[in-house]
Amino acid sequence: MTNHLLSLIVFAPAVAAMLICVSLTMPMQKAARDNLARFLALAASFIALLGGLWLWVAYDGTASGLQFTERATWIRSLGIEYSVGVDGISVSMVILSTLISFVATIASMPWWKRADEHSDPAHPHFSEVKVPGYMVMLLILQTGMSGTFASLDMFLFFVFWEVMLLPMYFLIGIWGGPRKEYAAIKFFLYTLAGSVLLLLAVIALYYKSGDPVLLARLSQLNPELFRKLLSDGTLFRGPSGAVGFHLGDGSFTPHTFDMVVLARLGQAGLFDLVGPFLAGVTFAKLMWVFMFIAFAVKVPLVPLHTWLPDAHVEAPTPISVILAGVLLKMGIYGMLRFNWAILPSATSAFAALVAAFGVVNVVYAAMVCLAQRDLKKLIAYSSVSHMGFSLLGMAAMTEAGMSGAVLNLFTHGLISPMLFLIVGVIYDRAHHREIEGFGGIAQVVPEYTAVMGLAFFASLGLPGLAGFVSEFLVLNGSFMTLPWHTALAATSAIITVAYYLWTIQRMFLGSLNPKYSHLPDLNWRERLTLYPLAALTLLFGFYPNVMLSLINADLFRLLRQVKGA
Amino acid sequence: MLPVLNNADSLAYFWPEMILTAGAMGVFLFDLAVAKSPRRILWLTVASLGVLAAAALATSHVAGLSPTPIGLFNGLLVLDPWAVFFKYLSWAVTALAILIAGPSLEVASERMGEYCALLLAVAVGMSLMASSTDMLMMVIGVELVSMVSYALAGFKKHDRKSSEAALKYVVYGGVASGMMLFGMSYLYGLLGTTNLVGTAARMNAQAAMLAQAGVAASVAGAGRVAMVVAVVLVLSGVGYKIASVPWHMWCPDVYEGAPTPFTAFLSVGPKAAGFALAVRILYGAMSVSGGADLATAVADVPWPQVVGVIAGLTMTVGNFAALNQTNLKRMLAYSSIAHAGYILMGVAAASETGSQSVALYLVVYLFMNLGAFLVVGIVGRLSGSESIFEYRGLSARAPFAAVAFAVFLFSLTGLPPLAGFVGKFHLFKALVDRGGSWQITLAIVGLLNSAVSLYYYARIVKAMFLDKPHTEERIAVPASYNLLLGALVGLVLVFGVYFDGLRQLAGSSVVLFGHS
Lengths: 565, 516
Description:
The complex is a heterodimer.
Chain A: H1 5-24, H2 30-58, E1 67-75, E2 80-86, H3 91-107, H4 131-150, H5 154-163, H6 165-175, H7 180-209, H8 212-221, H9 223-231, E3 236-237, E4 243-246, E5 252-253, H10 259-267, E6 276-278, E7 281-282, H11 283-298, H12 307-314, H13 317-342, H14 344-370, H15 375-396, H16 399-430, H17 446-460, H18 466-481, H19 483-508, H20 524-542, H21 545-564
Antiparallel strand pairs in A: 1-2, 3-4, 4-5, 6-7
Helix pairs in contact in A: 1-2, 1-4, 2-3, 2-4, 3-4, 3-13, 3-16, 3-20, 4-5, 4-6, 4-13, 5-7, 6-7, 7-11, 7-12, 8-9, 10-13, 11-13, 12-13, 12-15, 13-15, 13-16, 14-15, 14-19, 14-21, 15-16, 15-18, 15-19, 16-17, 16-18, 16-20, 16-21, 17-19, 17-20, 18-19, 18-20
Chain B: H1 7-10, H2 15-33, H3 40-65, E1 70-72, E2 77-79, H4 81-104, H5 112-131, H6 135-153, H7 160-191, H8 199-212, H9 217-242, H10 250-257, H11 260-286, H12 303-322, H13 328-348, H14 352-383, H15 394-397, H16 399-413, H17 419-434, H18 437-465, H19 479-497, H20 500-509
Antiparallel strand pairs in B: 1-2
């Protein structure tokens, strides 16, 4: 069981998706078909969540290196493997993606009757339209997400990375809001344009990994290191005497897609030995830029962020939850896995630039938030702003900055889904999200107001809640090396407080807008999604060590290697 | 040196083509026999598929006769794994084109005999294109494919678009053949023979001879210019067959006007044969390997760069022209131009992995492109329109066809885990493997083109899944058609996930004369 835990997490949703497809071929009432699809989706994402929780308990934070690894040869002639595993960089992300997937699946369940009175039969709620198709797409998306975080083979990573695109396109495009078509294709085009560059970098790294000229130069320059690489299994002398790599079953391959091996080669400086590549730029820097652009689209980095407000605003609530909670994290995760780990010297060269981009993200997006009238757009831009903190922390090259950056992914992955769920609650009731259109609703929906308050304060970084810990770690870590960047980024705290408090004032306080005097409060579906996240937000606010103890060892090791390059 | 057989001995290696030629004539006679039968189409389909099956068996037989490449008919043709691979591919495309003709309802029962016989004749032509080593034989192969294709493009006699298509095809084809022949006359002048076996060595010898005779460098330079011109002109004949820029103008009109089963055939079959020929001429005959003084020799034609430029232009023009098309057959025509550009990247890589990726991509392309045309054919036939507006809400009117079409389109875009991604991955891999600046630049151009192509493929998907249908009326796709679509979708998915076998198949086919 334990040695196939990751495969279970990754493929349980895919199996459920297949079962739903099979059920479509059977003669069945529409209601029965819909409910079966819902049940299968809930069951599969619950199994994945249990797997994720098991992973949390069973992962050994004191042991460094990979755990729960599985390897099987996939395409032998290319040396492609089905290789999954987690280390400190990915374990929190796998756990997060199972958690958020389950929350999003609950949020996709149909309306508990209480608030249904306002719904318009001509415009049914998304959770009642083409249910089997929706669930299939949601489940494939879940497989893609956890697969991306778990995979250790570049080819496998790329396949999972792209597998997420299609379901997202359809989920936004079919079940989304008024401008859904535009938002869906914009998301698709932006991401694909980025990921083709990633594909090029993947292929190029694959070839350079086994380039005999490079390996020979490495062994000349640093024979001791070369011997070490041979003895620790990174390199492998094949039957014909040629130096290459070994697959999981021990057979020889001249090049490798293995991300762990590539990271070791990169940290040994192999990719820095390639001369000027295109237009005088070195290979390592060019590949770094290609991969950075691919991941920056997902982060999203200003100025590549314009797909995000559209996609988040038009997507149905559970999909916004997944977008903000998990998909945005892939950008930062990819940078750590590829740019930081495989090309450390280029990372050092570009760190200042990344920090500057991070600060721009933080401050610019926070200022844009001030100008928003649509609550969902405001939340969307606040995500852009918060992702900037991770960039700043990573670029600072300090231990606190590094663990703050990754913890920020996790805490933002808890808080932003809450925020989007909160937007979904009010949208389902009022059918609009204009901040100015409400007023004084705290009087009629006290429970909702309380949860909203918690989420808003968590997001703006109130001490005692999760968001504070990660932001504090980032700012604390980056102040040592980048004081001016940090000072600028810290100003966003004021702006953030301003836009959140102003929103609360306009929506919840003051005199009650008579239109909303009968607004129903939270129902059980919403409680089921919001309370677990709220509880975790509190937990991480007081005791972040439950996650930090898992991630720190490997992150600090990665940091030492990047700094050493 | 390649062992060469005389005419009489070669016949034992020529069974597949002989079977097909006899079969083409036999189908005409068989047509008379079943003329009164209500199941005339079915009988003819079965008979033609039988002929192709026999040809396939014969192919495997002759391929087993000689383990190493062997020259036939005094060096006009060659039998090597490359030729065998494309023979199988040609039989497969032809079989599919015949199989879909009946259900597509575009070929009337009294003309089915003609249709099948003509397609079998094209199959012979494609096989000759893929296996010829002599320039004259190449011309005969190209012309055989072209002549019969003209007739098939104008198959719908009383349809103005079909007639226009045939005429355009003839005019462009004539010009392209003329240019190709002109280029070959140059090559003949430079080489002194029409046979391309050992061209590189021969050209080097000539260069050495010129140098020894003290001919001025400027004269040798002029010879080199003549060589480049000749190669480019010969390429124009090939470029016309594969519809690459600037020889692509016929493509949208012909694809739109011709009956859809034949359009589907045209977009894959002759294109594959064209690529077989291109790789044979360029990678097989012109590649110069080894030798120190060759840099200055006339033989050093920079054809990879030329092909690379054509590839970049072809995919860019194809993709950008496709963006605004509203007729789906035209859109797919431009998309197939773009794909010719992608495949040319594999040729431009000028390496064994490059040729392997060309072969591999063509197999994948066969399934996905044929599948796409199948859907366009049946929807066009049953709804009476090829416009993208007819595809609005297709997911409600013909759910399976819509899902299958989406799979083919995303595969054409090159998204994993579909076969199209595997194909593109290998093309880019071949270029990156070479690692030079212009190869990387070309790969970037190709990759960005993939992103552009997504826009128009996704437009169709959007119409099918996101838009509301203009009518609720369901489109009743015949079950036989759905079965075929299902099979193609299955292949696209299977090859997308597991492609080791396909790689090995394509890899083992890259044994050409001149390269071992």
